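One thing: mind reviewing this one?
=====
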Amino acid sequence: MPETSTTTSQPMTSAPNRAEAAAVTRLVLTNFRNYTSLKMNIAAAPVVLTGENGAGKTNLLEAVSFLSPGRGLRRAKLPDVTRRGRDQSRGLWAVAATLQDQTGKTDIGTGLEPVSAESDAEPSTRRVVHIDGVPARSANVLADISVVGWLTPQMDRLFIEGASARRRFLDRLVYGFDTGHARRVSAYEKALRERARLLRSGQRDLAWLSALENTMAEHGIAVAAARRDAVLRLGAAMDDGFGLAGENFPRAEVRADGVVEDWLAVHPAVEVESRFLDALKASRDQDAASGGAKTGPHRSDMAVVHGPKSMPANQCSTGEQKALLIAIILADARLQAARLGRAPILLLDEVAAHLDDTRRAALFEELIEIGGQAWLTGTDAALFKPLRNKAQFITVSQGEIAVAA
């Protein structure tokens, strides 16, 4: 497929906060999903991607999601992101972007690279990140540079499936206010895995076991405290009726639900850290059998209640659950714009089609008012008519893009 390149040139009306918004102004893909090569120059304004199902709209959102820590909005195995049919040793996927905000421009590059292996071992890869051409230690550094949030159709089941997806959703909200949160989550989970491996081995190296548990306690309490702080901020924003979200979407009551969070509600962090350490030591035998840890923030949940109905989110209708998710995303974006002077980049996949006309119009107005860069996808360009002259419209067709007329 030939290289695709486009520059948006549509007239757009700037929102009041636009100059302070973080935005992707250049995006370059190589061997990424259905894109062999793609170059986009983009205005610091909302982006509307329209086209048939399977054209590659969500792939573009996924590429932008890799400008943040983690495995992207699909949580795919990283080798699976590489365009199929390519020589895996030379055609691994890569994403390059220029991020512009009130502090200036930052060039970000990320992708897979081969890892040297012994001759009889399977070839492997690893994700690498470069910031302004300089290699970064890990992808967690991206939390210091860009905040990216998203809603996808797969997240419609967020409230009725397991707690792990809700924890990831909450952690992504925390990234916006605590740039060290991603590193602490990563450090905690690494220590948790190593402790489990050590306990399963039956080799009780008490010094190493204690060191791992100290690491879990130090980072775990910080993780739980950051989650509690995030939901308290969200609650205050919901109570204040932040922007149009408070008028057109239901108020969501959000709580970080877990043993450690409950301890933090009534005890100082130092005391909670000691309690957590005692709990880890007391459960070593049980944890050796189960392969995990009985207590810790890795077992916490994000509990959400539909405020006006006093109804748990998992008992609400599908439409109400979607509205609650949008309300949370918008309140968080408003908070970041107000408190930090920047709004997150929002990736909203097929959101407009599932909203009535009133809520759809309110969503668009809220996105413009917040002032951040939102990327929206849909099959019907008519749904986004209120965004004409306020956003850039791009048509996607089988891995090729064009500025819409």
The domain at 163-316 is CATH 1.20.1050.90 (Glutathione S-transferase Yfyf (Class Pi); Chain A, domain 2).
